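Journal club prep — side note

Before the paper discussion, L.F. wants everyone to see what a predicted structure for a comparable chain looks like in token form. Sequence:
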Amino acid sequence: MLITELQAIQHEHGFLPRDALQDLAERLRIPLYEVYGVASFYPHFRLEVPQGTELKVCMDLSCHLAGAPSWKAAVQQACTEAGLTAISFGETSCLGQCDAPAAFSLDDQIYCNGTEKKIPSLLRTLKSGRFPRRPPLPKPPRGLRVNPYPDVEPVAALRRLVQTRNFPTVIATLKASGLRGMGGAGFPAGVKWEIVRNEPASEKYVICNADESEPGTFKDRMLMQTVPELMLEGMIVGALTVGARVGYIYIRHEYLREREILEQTLARFRREGLVGENILGSDLSVEVEVFESPGGYICGEETALLEALE
């Protein structure tokens, strides 16, 4: 994928050098202007050498209400007084930390709970050049009842489906539940799955939208932190039901820790034969891959997300 190649180049150099883009275009046999067009569209990519440390403060609703503008001004003033001139300040849209404002990034590392009393420790960090470790993941809220397997074998629905292959029952159950999509149309999930199952195309895909860029939303992040196995099980059940053999988890690049959790869970699923070739010893196969978004609020919208993947 072009985006994955660009991410690898930026990870190596810290930005996207022009000669590296030229080499990539030649290797992939696509015009340089197409490579440049993708690189210049997504905000996570940098076409210039970064100058010093870049500190960006979220200015969306939750962080704004928590005092992000005044916090940013206070940090800038403190850096000026401390003689820290190699730091550039900017603003950014939602970083997905709306439950712990104000959020900010240091060279793409995401932090939260930005308060004025923490500015002295932040200055010490900036002087040393060693960025602080992110705090450990919070424990799930008390009373959260999402996991349907507290007293039974985990991933029981997937195991049962592989054994019975009763795919029409899955769709009938979805229809009966009244479950709808989270988009503005509220499209019935059972109907969507049925349409895809009846589609005669030989290649089908299941996409999990874990971009979640709208301000004030962090529910999906919490689910990925606490019950990633349910998310993967749902994707595999969905893929088997509609006849897809490949699934992508499209996750925003700010969710580094959540991606690590998903990768670890995916590796465990592979070891246990729950994903990949010949699931649970059957002739059924579904591959799942985590795809890191190159940024952009618009990519949370379905068609833009699919365009980025393609």
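L.F.'s comment for the group: The chain has 13 helices and seven strands. Keep this in mind when we get to the figures.
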